[in-house]
Amino acid sequence: MTRSGRKYLESLRDGREVWLDGERVKDVTSHPAFRNTAASIARLYDLAYDSAHRATLTTPDGIHRAYAVPRSAGDLVARRAAYKTWAEASFGFLGRTPDYMAGGAAGFAAMPQVFTGEGFDGAANATALHRRLAGSDLYCSFTITNPRSAPDDDLRVRAVAERDGGIVVRGAKLIGTGAVFSDEVVIGTIEPLAPGDTEYALCFSLPVDSPGLSLVSRTSYEGQARSLVDNPLSSRFDENDALLVCEDVFVPWERVLTYRDVTTTAAMWWRTPAYLNFVHQAATRFWTKLEFLTGVAILLTRANGVDQVPQVTQSVGRLLGMVAQAKAFVLAAEASCEEVDGGRGGVMPGTEISYAQRIMAGELYPRALQEIKQLAGGSLIQLPASARDLLHPELGPVLQRYLRAPGAGAEERVRLLKLAWDALGSEFASRHEQYERFYHGAPHVALTMQTWAGGAENCERLAQTCLDGYDLGGTP
Question: Is the dihedral of CA 173, 175, 181, 185 positive or negative?
Fold first, then answer.
């Protein structure tokens, strides 16, 4: 069953080891660097727990739709509606919300046999992971990126000992997006491993408060925010990214998914629907984010009184075309869904379209930002240090007079420009641009994998048909 936002916040007060600026954070729900984002995630839980959106966000069995294994294209559409509801609550700026890994866990449950290797069988554990997360409505994050190191540096997570009840692991993983806010974290690798890399070929799930597990947070944009009005996005939706470090952490065998097996450690992402489920959630969120950014652009043009200028309307049209393109990828992936394990594992979004979405999103996002920045002009950088200056007894009347625009008063315009800057030009915005560029991994990986997704043969066949239709003599 789903849980309330209050229950979620209570779960974070577990003594987890989170570090920021050399300080051990005692409670992420009250610390000024994390509390507003934690509250934003809690509101997502409340939408599913008790709101008008409950029917959209949950199944008749009472679990979040992201945890349900889809059996038809209609189920994918229903799951997307749940994704969209949560994405709109953060305007697309919370990327790794609980429904992200929930979809991954549902992918594991659809094909648990993939976790059966030669020396270790994690099939039952994968099923148990899905059941545990769904049944308790837990927020699970993941860390699957290895530190860049020489082979003998021993920086990557690995098992250093075996015990009767489990294994002891040591090492680090990068980019734990949302990990400081999660209940559990899946620790594994999605990067290709050489056949001899069995030492690093493992995956497991742990509670974030496990002894020896620590998270080192990057700079908190929420912590740097001046106010809700001055930083309306970064003050509420900074999901954070953290370095995960394991110092002799004990992992019970029942929480191990793959162990010393290069094949199953890679297959858990690619042979199950897990990765395609990730893309389904991410593509829905990306579409929502472009809708929001385009809305900001439209409001800017109206405030500046230029919305009817032909060049401006063309620019807005270009942005709306990008929104439609992002939407089309989501709908096409659903419409081209494929059976999983001959239908025994339900269905998953279409592989070819899903892989193509990864390429599109990383290339489209910077173009959309550039388009909106051109529309905003220099007004983005000429703003009072704080919106509260408008209320100052001496300064306020001056700003009220000189900061108004043809289509907006000073207060409305400053609030809009502060929002636009937070989305387009702030450090928070720069993180999001880089984030979207590499959301699904390095572009060269996505581009290479696209050639494996299918479609090349049809393109080649059509071109060859044309060539075969005539000869040097020009005879058909």
Answer: negative
